[in-house]
Records
---
Amino acid sequence: MAVRALLSAEHISHVYRTPGGDVPALDDVTLRLSGESFVCLVGPSGCGKSTLLRILAGLLRPTEGRVLLDGQPLTRAQRRVGIVFQKANLMPWRTVAGNLALPLELAGTPPAERAERTRAMLELTGLEGFAGAYPGALSGGMAQRVAIGRALIHDPQVLLLDEPFGALDALTREQMSEELLRIWARHRKTVLMVTHSIPEAVLLADRVLVMGPRPGHLVAEVPIPLARPRSLALLHQPDFVALSEQVRRSIRPA
Amino acid sequence: MDNAHLAPPVPHERTAESSAALPRARRRRWHLLLAPAFGLCLLAVWTLVARSGMYAAFIVPTPASVAERWWGLASDGSLLRHAAVTLREVLTGLLIGVAVAFWLGYWIAKSRTVAYTLTPYLVALQTVPIVAIAPLLIIWFGSGIASKVIICGLIVFFPMLVNTVIGMRGIPAELHDLLRSLEATPLQTFWHLELPAALPIVLGGLKVSVTLSVVGAVVGEFVSASAGLGYLINFGRGTYDTPLVIAAVFTLTALALALYGLAAGLERLLLGWQRANGTP
């Protein structure tokens, strides 16, 4: 594939300096994300997945290595890279519509356009009836949908998701995966999603990157050649199960 | 921070069988009479003690003589004049104290350098009893409004500062990350994140501060003043005009209550979203 990488990490290493000594978190990670691809990053807890994501978002400066966005070194967080965290992190003083519109307000989008795009995003995320609701009245899954909508509304080129469904119950989690597939089909972004659910990764991704334990390093890359559009029905098909097994084996080699 | 723990416990919903017999309205309203009834009892006890002859009238005046004195002061406009003086001191001191404390608290929460530099002095300042340095402030700033404003400002400063720092530091780090990733300017971060996130705790501090500010003004007026409700109390004490002292105390209480009510109203107005989120 000769597709130019939109976001790439080159030889990223990171060490947390703590009073108790240096803690290596990442060791020489190199990855390339190209346009319109969905990549999942899996690995054991504490292997530095979130650290890598924060570095890719420009929120954390790596000890070594560099991040390139569209060929330019990324030295600070940028609007072009949207981010969703495990917790929805909605502002409780804003309504659902207000939370969705925040990125547009900060970017100085004219009110008319803001209203129009907020309405479209409410529709896309299935939250039409909740425009005026406050976050406290939402379920975990709904709150996370708002968070995803907020990360997409200003049309970033890259979307980074840090275990976005990690705090949800299993049923909601499955529904949200399917929801995300549907949203992604309409908004084809370059997506990198951290997860520790292997079925979730296989269901969503074009490629699954597997990280080894601390200090985090990439140990395997599993391409997922399953046809799109995909749905939860895939979960029990033999090729899906085989791919999941392949990912599982590369995390914990026998 | 709040006096919610003083609020009466909510009675358990009765089962349908036991409550069906009682008319709903009567069941709800009778308890509203308890507090006024108790107040009337206290007033009756006060009257009895004053009338019993155990104490001279200038030690325990009757409620009627206090009310008469109060009415006299109110109708010739002097009560309003003195109350206005105190109110001006209270509000000016409150405004300055709250503004400075918020500004300093904001920077202490944001910058470690500022925190390390100022914290020891601010704690030391807090341990100085304001009442003790009131005479000093009168010497330096005269017996006019300036010294009282400074006393009010100092007395509200610390609770406001502490609340601002706690409020600012309590903002989730991920919301800061979100605003950074959206390239928010420092002003946008303040306006869209820091101010609204810290507001509940800051307004809680304001509710405490309004009543403290009234205390500050009275302390200042006790030391040296030519007008104000504190001056009126001091004057009444000097002339054995006990009804005047009590009338002034009641007026001060009403003033403090009104200010507290305003602060609580402001809170309800600005923090409507808290109720909408289901948090009390």
---
Amino acid sequence: MLSRTADHLYWMARYMERAENTARMLDVAHQTALLPGPHPEHQEWYAPLNITGALSAYSSRYGEVRPDRVIRFMALDPENPSSIFACIYSARENARAVRGSISSEMWESLNATWLELRNATFEQIHADGLSPFFDWVKERSHLFRGVTFGTMLHDEGFRFIRLGTFLERADNTARFLDVKYHILLPSLKDVGGAVDYYQWSALLRSLSALEAYQRTYRDAITPLRVAELLILRDDMPRSLHACLNEVFDILQKINGPSGAEVRRRAGELHASLHFGRISDIFQQGLHEYLTEFLRRIGALGEEIRRSFLLRPQQPEARPAVALAQHQ
Amino acid sequence: MPLPLSTAVTDAETRHPPPAFDEMYRADGAPFPHCADLAGWLKAKPLEFFQRKQREAELLFRRVGITFAVYGEDTGAERLIPFDIIPRVIGAAEWKRLARGLRQRVVALNAFLHDIYHGQDILKAGKIPAQQVLSNAVYREEMRGVAVPNGIYAHIAGIDLVRVAENEFYVLEDNLRTPSGVSYMLQNRRTMMRLFPDLFAAHPVAPVAHYPQMLLNTLRQVAPAGVDDPTIVVLTPGAYNSAYFEHAFLAQQMGVELVEGQDLMVRDNGVWMHTTEGPQRVDVIYRRIDDDFLDPLAFRRDSMLGVPGLFASYRAGRVTLANAIGTGVADDKSTYTYVPEMIRFYLGEEPILSNVPTYRLGNPDDLSYTLAHLPELVVKEVQGSGGYGMLVGPASTAEQREAYRRRILAEPANFIAQPTLALSTCPTFVESGIAPRHVDLRPFVLSGKDIMLVPGGLTRVALSQGSLVVNSSQGGGTKDTWVLEK
């Protein structure tokens, strides 16, 4: 298929998935902020800025980190490329460029999402209590994915859509897991305490993983198990392993002589998850492991672009995950 | 999509309008025999029926997403072109004559294009002043001597016709560059068949749905020599073009790729498209980009839409462009006046379809006549399209005429003038009920090895009472056009 068409489909899916994940990210910050206890400097609100690499852009325009400003910036600011608004706009523009290659139901669903979002105001989503808005974004993303699955020919174009979805999701789940790294517990004695518990459960909930956790472990929430669930469990739909299963499978089905290096890299990354042990990951250090994973998934994305999608202008990649811890 | 404004002008705004010819009802109020059944049906149904069907039609159009982008509006501004649910009927015999006339005209136009880019016999014979052709801004000297497959230049032609009496059709304009509107012709029919299956059961309506297949065949027939199984693409300026829907629609219907300039590259004199499996050779390009923007190396250097090197590849016969480069010189409004001469010169036949009588203001007699009769005439720029920069005499104010007179006098050869025509009307469903509204017709003629056309074309209708303008951006709509098979 035409490289540009594949590129639009791939980015349409990535942006839609990214919008959903930004909503999830804001939701976890919001949930955490609702927890009792001290919230020095609104530090849970640094997380969405840090993990999307948007902190400096935020600071230069909005100054101090304040919950309402972060939400405004991350949800509705058209100038922030990570905002829900910008992501859905970009998803829709990509879809519009290849309307003939997607089903009309897909177009209508995405277009309706955009038309509704365009009219959203901060005052109104704030008055509704934020969560309904984040839920709405998630639902629209679910709907779009379902419509895609159920109405589009499962051809090459479909594979590029799915490829975009799972690559973006893997990237986002890794960033999420790293979120704990960006939220400091008030003191060491709080590790394993109530605040710690609530933070981990908020993280799980934001990835729709709390129920899966309970069903899988039927035990207390520990960082090790959370990491295992979200990195290595292949039956957990947002885990790195599950995403790489999809990516690896899809790449086997995308034809072309130029894909050999892509398939090799995906296979390598997939194998490391397939055969990985959580104890090894913790030995390396979770943050270090995730940083390395993000580098590799980024390199895989770059290789996909080079092999299949190359055209003169590309949407810019998101800045690499912020390595510096806020303090 | 804003179709080029029909430059037809009706009588409606003149002070003493001649009666317009109605295509369904005779002057005495009785329907023409071939419309009798439809007229009966119109009479039998209550108004609410048509209101309901009209709403259904709009819903269908919106759902399918048949919209046109509106320039200058907010992102996502897409509008529906109004669709009228009452079909326009053309009798079998009428169409037969029209079709013969259209073929004849398009054959002559293609012969003319071939001639002026080769031997220029018609200029040597003095039938058309050489200056008229050679100093025309859209004449492409670069095309001199370039061989094109089958000698065809205008593979897709849209010929705008108006009707003033029972057997009196006039050609208003030839569109030989990138005529649009065929997607509406197809969607209008689909919509009508869904809304009124019973009508189709009762009328022998000639089908049009095979147009994309015919277009595909035509494009295949003009592939470069030696290419048996050509790869065909549709080249669009992109999603922001007002006719983007049509480009995407035709590509989808033909099952070929819809490409933008950035998807193509020229290598070893051949044209290739970037695919996920590497470069793939392209043999025929149905381009919906104007000549000027096709190749920044050959034409406008600032074009971001084109493909560098495309013209060189084209000249070398490695790729076919449909339509060919340089067809504009044959559909120019002042060249138009010579088409009957072309038909006589190349075919040795008398034209079956008439031109609207046209005054060339470069000619002093015509100029003085026109200036003396401005309130009755329509004056157009030779190079104008989309209806911009024209003066509609009967609808103009004295100041407008005065301003226009100064423009004419500054460069008379830039203008032509035509009498105001009494365009035919068809019953149309409007707010007040069913009422006559003015229409025109754009049939599409395909030329490859054979000449093909589907019966009918796109009927545009001026929806407001007495309106002259069938342009979609000015509130004009479209109708399904029925050609009866017997």
